[in-house]
Amino acid sequence: MNFWTNWNYPTAVHFGIGRIKDLSNACKNLGITQPLLVTDPGIAGLPMIADTVQAIADGGLSTTVFSDIQSNPLGSNVIDGLTQYHDGGHDGVIAFGGGSAMDTGKLIAFMSGQTRSMWDFEDIGDNWTLANPEGIAPIIAVPTTSGTGSEVGRAAVATEEETHTKKILFHPKMMPSVVICDPNLVAGLPANLTAWTGMDALAHCLEAYLAPGYHPMADGIALEGMRLIKDWLPEAIADGANLEARAHMMSAAAMGATAFQKGLGAIHSLSHPVGSVYDTHHGLTNAVFMPYVLAHNRPAIEDTSARLARWLDLPGGSFSAVLDWVMELRTRFDIPHTAADLGVEESRLEELAAMAAVDPTAGTNPVPIGQAEILEMYRSAMVGQLDSS
Fold first, then answer.
1. Contact 196/287 with Cβ under 8 angstroms?
2. CA–CA dist 25, 27 (Å, integer)
3. CB under 8 Å to 380, separation ≥6 — which residues?
4. Widest CA span of the chain, in angstroms?
5. What is the CB-side half-sphere exposure of residue 182 using CA atoms within 13 A?
6. Is the pTM of this model over 0.85?
7. Does some domain include residue 203?
8. What is the mean pLDDT of residues 79-103?
9. Is the CB of residue 322 less than 8 Å from the CB of residue 294?
10. CATH number of the domain encompassing residue 227
């Protein structure tokens, strides 16, 4: 066992019902006087945004809102946000919304004082050392979904339009300095988005736990995150106003993103190209590919899956129990069974497999994978062939 590894943990988190009231003071404590509020277009017109802008003004600060973001953020979205950031004389970012707003907001803050191309900072090797750390603006994150956990992450994802490739960009200072997790802000999320984002949180916890390498603290966080998801995601979907369920799912999302510093795997490797090419929801796409990747990885995850099954008190306490649980969740939440149901075309599978093979998440899959193995998983997912024997 190689015990040489790096461990990192989240930032300051203000957690609880009504904690959004802390936002103005959080800005002041970080020296932010003119924050740019980056949010999703789907919530930009909702009262929560108007109320937040007014609360910021009442606190003696001024802000503008940027929401020209796609569900899978593009590099051009970040560039447009940077233009507004500089033109408005802003000195910090409030990333307010789901994963797209989180990633875009973090990248705007990160790039606000850089001179190199954004793509120079892809999470490969020590690319992050190319950045000027003094050119990174302070970030406050306010999640309104419970899935990506990007609010406690040191990376962000954007699509490079020229290649239609999702890139993971990394820097330690991309971690928000303050996170405000208020379950009230998630209460209005529709049932389908609650399910999709919840399955994203599950994918993070599951892949982190099953990833090879030594990181017992990440393993423990991932295990407890999956227990919270098992107990509370169905409750949050059934009753979006259940603030206890919403709070536990906010915790689980942050736990997944904390745990996956250990690594992810082929669920994300397969999902990223499909999301960039077909603009599918990331959590939904993860949920579609999840069982096919588990089946492919079975030889390497049999024992760890059995431990997971026992922790979750799944009948049978085995790999099959975990797979059956995943399939049951997909059925209960109306997740499509095949990649074809997402609109993926057979003619593009080899292209997608080539993109997935170089995705950074492929390197920590429990079973070594290349383009051929990924193509095999894509083909199984296209026709719903699930052979875990």
1. yes
2. 5
3. 292, 295, 296, 386, 387
4. 63
5. 18
6. yes
7. yes
8. 96
9. yes
10. 1.20.1090.10
